[in-house]
Write a structure and sequence with these properties.
Layout lengths: L1 H22 L5 E2 L10 H11 L11 H21 L7 E4 L2 H11 L9 E5 L4 H12 L3 E5 L9 H7 L4 E5 L13 H10 L3 E5 L11 H4 L3 E5 L10 E5 L25 H39 L3 E3 L10 E6 L4 H10 L2 E2 L15 H5 L4 H5 L1 E5 L6 H27 L6
Parallel strand pairs: 1-11, 3-4, 3-5, 5-6, 6-7
Antiparallel strand pairs: 2-8, 7-8, 9-10, 10-12
Helix pairs in contact: 2-9, 3-9, 4-5, 9-13, 10-13
Amino acid sequence: MQKAALGQRDVQHIEHKVEALARHPNLGVYMDHNATTPLAPEALDAMLPYLTWNYGNASSIHEFGIQARYGIEKARMQVARLINAPDPEDVIFTGCGSEADNLALRCVARLFPDKRHLITTAVEHKAILESAHVLEEEGYEVTFVRVDDQCRIDPAAVAEAIRPQTYLVSIMFANNETGVIQPIAEIAQLCRERGVLFHTDAVQAVGRIPIDVQALGVDLLSASAHKLYGPKGVGALYVRPGLKFRGLIVGGSHERGFRAGTENVAGGVGFGAAARLAQQRMAEEGPRLAQLRRSLWAALQTRVPDVLMNGSLEDRLPGTLNIRFGGLSGQRLVTELNARGVAISAGSACTSVGTSHSHVLLGMGLAEDDALGSVRISLGRANTPADVDYVMTFLPELVEQLREEFRRERDRPDAEC
């Protein structure tokens, strides 16, 4: 009964907070864009007709359906242009980036019944890692290539892991926690030379940095709308021309047979509008965010002792910082910043509930205490130098307070070792 009562109070607390945020949508400083981005007004405007009067099923042949089909196909073209896919039909809409990852790993496996070996890394998104574990349960072998202490993959290690039985290599384009960008073109080329398909989870990269699937030579690429100011609940999988496999969801010929089910027309339209906007703004927004990130990092180094960068500073997404503060809990810092109106994270949004160690940071060789003392700051379109100034007005003192609290807790006579 006590647990149920606490649960009810928690629900009420969340409802009150949601109501408060609804009344004040601009409350606070949002620096967690790798978790999700706000919906761009342009994407919302494009979606509204398909959420109201233009409600047809895109598979219907009457005028209502034709208008819906026009919306989804225009969106497909916009997403294709963002990644320079040779044909809009190469873009398959999915329910999210995780579904796209599952499609790439688990469905492509069926194409090669005599090849039962997959190569990926130990620092991938959970959608990749859990798909790999499902395949292991089905008798597949999986090689998890390690990264170095900068979260970088050595293409030579991938080449060494390839066997005659390898059906696919899947390497994340940009890590969701550190923001480190991998040498995707080089890895794709060595896979092509060895006759192995190559997939990249580019959910964090699409819309933030230029991506050209033809120049890269990738066979499959995953993307997600809500990481580039589009709606949640819609993703995409690029499938190179000539590659065909049966999807996870069957029951119709939708999405060229890759994914059965009535299309999420409004979601797709929002994805397309967000993709078009990202393409227009990327050349200016990328350098702006990189400069803002550098300013924040410089301020931290100057004013906060014992702060270190996790991952390569050179090869990373423009707006992403993953940093560790010696002698405190990153989760506690996130909570205290939230109380001061600042939103950051202690890791991936898909795995940040609780206080478990980041598999990414541990995979880079960090000690457990260093991993627990790390946070991710991911900047976006609405962030300005004033946000950095605001955070730095209280962050140095807050870090010192939390370090002192951490020391007292650690030194308690009854503290666990």
